[in-house]
Fold this sequence. Notes:
With 142 residues, this protein is mainly α. The chain has six helices and no strands. The protein has one domain: Serine Threonine Protein Phosphatase 5, Tetratricopeptide repeat.
Amino acid sequence: MQTWQQTMREANGAAQLLDDKEAYGLYQLAIADIEQRWPDEPESMALLMGWIAGLHNLSALLEKQGDAETALRYLTLPHHWVLALINDETISESFRLAAHRVINITLTALLEFSQRQPVCESCEQLLQATQQWLQIPKHQLH
Length: 142
């Protein structure tokens, strides 16, 4: 049985060969595999990072094809998920702290996207507010 990591590598290879349809399908398979494994490993940083990478790669494919609206959805989904993890008191403090570091990845992707593609004013304001919130020293958050 192929792992999600192998499927992701194959998707990356297809994307490099400009086989967008094959890459898209493989990214979706890798993401589905990750989502299937998540209930057994809810605090796996490898699964979280793989899931984010897969969704960001899908976003890049769709943006390249001119579907900016769906591309944006593939960026906002992991961003909102990580924000929820940061505030989820049912998970360990160490995983929440790790998620706090990961939010920089999802926010950066969204900010870069907003430089290339138009986003609504309220979305832009929310991105800027999130960026400012992340710049507050952690000792001030407690």
